[in-house]
Amino acid sequence: MRFRDRRGGVLVEFAFAFLIFWAFLAGLFITSFWGIGGAFAQEAAFEAARKYAVVADAGQAAALAKSIMGKWAYVFFDPASVQVSVWGEGDRAKAEVTAVPRVSVWPFKAGVIRREASCSMEYRFRHPQEFD
Questions:
Q1: pLDDT band at residue 32, thresholds of 50, 70 and 90?
Q2: Any stretches that span the bilayer, and where are they (predicted)?
């Protein structure tokens, strides 16, 4: 049996292939943005912990982390969503940076990025009795 008109078959196949290819590219793009944004958040958390370990001022450390996140990280995050927490825990300085990714397309919902870093406090803060 032979059909009268065979035109349009290639277009239908292309449409199906294009949808699958688009889904793959969207997933790859969003995953890459999430990973690069995570690297920015990790760097900001580490720098905030390092700053707190040196000066023991949570305000300065948080401001440093926000300035790092405000340089090129705005491409990956909404600047208003960035939250920075800095604290001392024993002889360790700790910092946590939380941010919401800018790019999120259904069905690839990128989760909130939360990165934590810590480093040792300066010797003068760990042993204040030696600095009278």
A1: confident
A2: 12-36
